[in-house]
Design goal:
With 279 residues, the chain is an alpha+beta fold. The protein is 49% helix and 16% strand. It has two domains: 4-140, no CATH class; 149-277. The radius of gyration is 23 Å and the shape is elongated.
């Protein structure tokens, strides 16, 4: 017999809101493998739990099926299906990382929690609202990185006590590390060797441009754009400058205050600090 009051279980609520926060803030703010694992652990609890509340007679099949689907989803065998959906402009995404299989323990925890007698009585309107929110959170976690972004004018300059060529070299290495993190998280980054450009698979947005420092003259001022910034580089054999002209700050739609300060802090953390500390 269906007991929809189980929708109000605190662990289920925590997992759903973890999915929402992770997909709409943590992934864009931190860009690391931990955020991907967080989605897996929360989603593998919430998804079979939610379906089992709606279809309690099939809870065993739902949990076993979730195990099988997740194993398939995280393998290369799911790529043809993903490519098919993307070809019809239906954006879905996943990362191939076999260490994610550790999150399968969440399915077992979901099953145990579901079989417990604990449940909370919640109002029908709240129950329906939370069911809709749950469905949205499940869909959001399969989408590509959020393209919602704020265009921010910065016009701020950073000086370095090393040559312009050294700055370009360090910037290249920082960008490569950034791309590796994105690729580990999303598994859909391509490299155009003719243009030295990284971009998302099937898209034209530039994630990173690798500059050829051997072709750079001391008198040159370099201007280039990526998917998150527009930058000027100048300098000589002993000193260099990086001027941040504009920045695209990837943020959730509800995050609408102090864009410029937050965008600068994020850029300095992701790029400037790493350039200075590069070894």
């Amino acid at each position: 017999m269906r007991d929809t009051n189980k929708i109000g279980h605190p662990l289920f609520i925590i997992c759903v809101f973890t999915l929402i926060l992770n997909d709409w803030y943590f992934k864009t703010a931190f860009h690391n493998s931990l955020t991907g694992k967080l989605s897996d652990f929360a989603g593998l609890f919430a998804f079979p739990y939610f379906l089992s509340v709606l279809y309690p007679r099939h809870s065993n099949k739902i949990h076993i099926g979730t195990v099988l689907l997740f194993v398939l989803w995280k393998s290369e065998f799911s790529q043809p299906l993903i490519d098919l959906f993307n070809s019809f402009k239906i954006p879905i995404n996943r990362t191939i990382d076999f260490t994610d299989y550790i999150a399968l323990v969440s399915i077992f925890i979901s099953y145990i929690t579901l079989k417990s007698e604990f449940s909370l009585t919640i109002k029908p309107i709240l129950k329906k609202t939370f069911m809709v929110v749950s469905c949205l959170s499940f869909m959001a976690t399969t989408l590509p990185p959020h393209t919602n972004r704020k265009f921010v004018n910065i016009d701020k300059e950073y000086e370095f006590s090393f040559s312009k060529r050294e700055l370009v070299s360090r910037l290249n290495m920082v960008q490569i590390k950034e791309v590796r993190e994105i690729n580990k998280l999303n598994g859909q980054v391509d490299f155009d060797s003719d243009k030295n450009v990284f971009h998302y698979q099937g898209r034209t947005d530039t994630l990173a441009i690798l500059l050829d420092y051997q072709k750079i003259n001391d008198q040159d001022t370099i201007e280039f754009k990526t998917s998150f910034a527009e930058i000027l580089i100048s300098g000589n054999e002993t000193n260099s400058k990086l001027k941040l002209l504009t920045l695209y700050k990837f943020v959730p739609t509800f995050k609408d205050k102090d864009y410029r300060d937050k965008a600068i802090k994020q850029f300095e953390k992701r790029i400037i600090k790493k350039i200075k500390n590069y070894r």
